[in-house]
Amino acid sequence: MLDLIEILREGTLLKKGEAPKVIDHILSHPEDLQIVIDGMSHEDAGIRMRSLYCAEQICRKHPEWIQAYKAEMIASLDYWEQYPEMAQLLPLLLSHLVLEGQELDLALEFVRRRLKQSKKTFEQVNCLQALTDHASRNTWLIDELLATFDEYEVRGGAAINARIRKLRKKLAKLG
């Protein structure tokens, strides 16, 4: 059996290293997803980041696989937020979860906070994407999101404005 954590150890911080090998392995062995989920709390920052990257990429293809871990993930948000390498991709991972009630409130609070606090365009774009994904399942969020788009278009750069145009089109298709 592959030692997935050792594979995830390879690479420098904020680089995906050999993570695609882990993604391919888990796509054909979904029972090993727990290893990646556990890796998101590893003491090594690179392993944490690459585990999150793997989880997010896997859940783009199979969002239903992550549902079993949603309570654990929501409970870990405060822990993960202290690590900048985690805060970049967590909003996207959260957007793959079907959440309701307090879980949704906590996830939205986290994403909104990351959007306001981050100075990184990449992270802001991820947060806007995550909020749009949540709004597509929770239409009561659309008005708030449109106001957020207006705010970020005024001060955003080319990358943020381009993403907002794309996200507005997605929302328009919802009705």
What does this structure look like?
- It is a single chain.
- With 175 residues, this protein is an all-alpha fold.
- The protein has 13 helices and no strands.
- Helix 2 packs across helix 4 and helix 10 runs antiparallel to helix 11.
- The longest helix is centred in the N-terminal third of the chain and has 17 residues.
- The chain is globular and about 45 Å long.
- It starts with a helix and ends with a helix.
- 37% of the residues are buried.
- The model has no long low-confidence stretch (mean pLDDT 92).
Provide a quick synopsis of the model.
The chain is an all-alpha fold.
Keywords:
175 residues, mainly alpha, 0% strand, globular
Mean pLDDT: 92
- H and E order: HHHHHHHHHHHHH
Shape descriptor reads globular
How far do the termini sit from each other?
Answer: 48 Å
Question: Topology of this structure?
Answer:
Blueprint: H1 4-9, H2 19-28, H3 33-39, H4 45-61, H5 63-66, H6 70-75, H7 77-81, H8 84-87, H9 90-95, H10 101-117, H11 121-137, H12 142-155, H13 158-174
Helix pairs in contact: 2-4, 3-4, 10-11, 11-13, 12-13
